[in-house]
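Q: What does the assembly look like in three dimensions?
Context provided by user:
Components: two
Sequences:
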Amino acid sequence: MTHAPRLQEAAPSPRLTSPGLLKNPALLLVPAVVFLAVIYLLPLFDLARVSASGTPWWTHFERVFSVPLYWESLLRTMQIALIVAIICAVFGYPTALLIHRSRGIAQTLITAAIVLPYFIAILIRTYAWMVLLGRNGPINKFAMWLGLYDEPLGLLFNRGSVLLGIAAVLMPLMVLSIYSSLARLDPSLTRAALASGAGPLAVFWRVLLPLTLPGVGAGFLLVFVSALGFFITPTLLGGPSDQMFAMHITQQADSITGEGFLQALGVVLLIITLIVVGIAGRLLGLEFIWGGGKLSEAEVQPLKSSATSSAGSRRKLGAMIADAVGWPVLRLLGRLPAEWGTWTVRLMGGFVIFMLILPLLVVIVISFSKASYLTFPPAAYSLRWYEKFFSDSTWMTAFWNSLTIAALSACIAVTLGATAAMGIVRSSIRGKSVLMLLLVSPLIVPPVVLGLSLYSLFLRLDLVGTYWGLAAAHAIGGIPIVVVIVSASLQAVDRRLEQGAAVHGASPLTVFRTVTLPAIAPGLAAAVFFAFLHSFDELVLSLFLSSPRMRTLPLMLWADVNYQLNPVLAVVSTLEVLLVVGGIVLARPVLARSRGAT
Amino acid sequence: MVDTAARRSSRTEQTLSIPVQETRAQGVIGSSISIREVVKAYGTFRAADRISLEIQSGEFVTLLGPSGSGKTTLLNLLAGFQRLDGGEILIDGKPIHNVPTHRRGFGMVFQSYALFPNMTVAQNVGFPLRMAGVDRATSERRVAETLEMMRLSEHAKKAPTEMSGGQQQRVAIARAIVMRPKIVLMDEPLSALDRRLRESIQIEIRDLHQRIGSTILFVTHDQSEALTMSDRIAVMDAGHIVQFGRPTEIYRHPESRFVASFVGESNLIEADILQKRGTTMILRSRSGYVFQAESRSAPSEDHVTVLVRPERVVLHESASDATASTIVVSSLFLGEMLRIEVEMAGGERLLIRCPDAPGRSLPPVGSRLHVSWGAEDCWVLS
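A: Here is the predicted structure of the complete assembly.
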């Protein structure tokens, strides 16, 4: 009774004072939100509008679903994405376990082997697989040397190579997602299960797997959604019968078709993606997109009782399935010696690491080849392809273009993303989760759809083929990366330190400069690096938005990969690997410091 | 006087004897544990350095020591979470180094409770039964019994996260004893709980031990917890067991300065030997106070360290030959006790605890106090 009036007094007071309004950290969200609304949401709405411009409005959609070429491709795309997600889950779990169980330097190395490829351009990793699986590639050579067959096999351009390529590209996403949920577990849970008489298999089935299922689910859906929009890998590794949906969009964009149908294709892909994400969000909470914990706002809501009851019924169903199907099988397997389990994890994890690292190693070796065609191992070594790359003016121009655009894009993404992260973490406005969703949603929109939607906007504003235009387009994908990293490091800052500084007389700006900024500096540095890398590697948007006069490095690579496979590509790939390794090595002390602090 | 004391003790005996006899009727099911020359090394650091310990069946033994002393390492070696680098551990005379954790059949309680969040309370408690392949009906009965024993019956269907810390730890204890294991390991199970809860669960664990008769190995860094709960205490320091004995022995007759200062509050008084007559000595402290002490053996040096527990120091109204004059430097009222710190001549500090009594007042800081202690109040450290 006595509390009620006081609460009512307290609630409206922040809104009444106007200086308080100006100081509201929610204002920090405005620049990023405006930027995304103009350059990201608006074009997408426009895309939807154009797609529905036929008479009647569904004409174009009807064509998508009536022409077998398209709906068969749509089904095929979902099938491929599903298989890829299953492959990633089956192989990703043991790999995550391997990281979880290893210690010290071994853990660092294994983690690096998983994480490193993730930061290398999809185009380059796909190119590496083309080299690896090629007629004169190391796999054919090795198999023939073993005497498995006499003639080199066509390992490329089939469904298998597409699945392998996409799974290899997306595997790190799955491994990291599972690993983060393993790492969050209380280590004494495993010990408690062991002490209760559970063998290693029972520990896995009864404790580890049920508790990490959200991580597996998040990884599964991320991989599935990303695979849906894949364009580069299936184009390069697939044959005529492996056409994925995103490829139709680019093909249609090249051939001038009637306005509307192209957009309808994009909208269909976008809607399917959104439906999957929506279902995933209901099951897992939309946090799975950015792999983070709940926002502070969510903790306040008294959702607990309802959440536990629904979780309880789900748990019961899960337990029944686990009992009826899994347990009898495991009982049989349980008769095997315990070492088998350990070795299964090691072998599968080792296989995954091998598959992620091997292509890069092969490409690096080939870049030093003397031959003018691709062969492995090279007959002789030279630096001739490096000379060619650095002396060829078209390559160098493209290289500088990419550097400039990436630098600009990183500036935009970090400025907007970091302020938005401050706004998200530090303000107490309602609808935080909606805003966060807006900020990170570019991560899940298929790049092909984004490129298509931006194209008409860029034509109208005459931005096609300009530095700023491309930088801004790349920043759409850079902002989510920055927001995720910076808001995570902001949440790790102990607010009591800031309060302590304020109590002892520091002004808000001084508090930020002396306490907050040093604490989030490692996160900011990482954000700059990854935003830069994102733009530097970006291909799909650039395909839509650059002009023949202004080409970026990935565009040059793309043109060359489709035209002829020569070792210059290997040189560029090696340089990219060096860039990423260098960046991570440079960032390591900073990262180690930040990890020590938490 | 003697009469009333005798009567009082006999009455205590009677009230105590009833539950004790009940437990003896159920019998001891615990195993004996022999730890022999056990070594665990991390690089050059030895977390356990040739530890030997003989624990009898059904005993409640506490490993007590500061953090990093090796007590948790020893427990982990026993549980099989870590491999021995040397020595052996025998359970009922049989070596266990080749038996994996899940076949050792121990119960274990963890500091973080370690309840499976994906299972209800009843499922958590039933987990060991299920792993042992016990049939459903028996399993349900045993779970119900154990929950009843821990007064948790009404929480059976709850998720562990819906319960308080104390309740969660009682569930964890229930899970550890549901199989009636011969050995229960407890790794600082009470350190996450607040003091009042800790004390009530201490008593609960003590009672449980009496009822189920398992051998319990309990790890703690809290010396008062160790003193109240254990049959015997192994005090550990830097990978060694520095003393193993009954709580009264550990408290009254510590074998080293470390044990004396780690267990309970202590005054360690440096004194010169003035006179030796067999094991009886006349000593003089640095402050010049002359007192008598008994030693187990005749010391070879002419200098000893003497332990005087704060509650053994006697306060006097006035000075006499047998007292030392001191000045009060701090004076605290703790409720049932007064805690007074005084400075002796020469700057030596002395801690005094005396029970609160009618008419007793806190001596003001700076005032003079006359103190003494007798030969039976001192313990000469070797």
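Follow-up: The CA atoms of residues 5 and 11 of chain A lie 10 Å apart.
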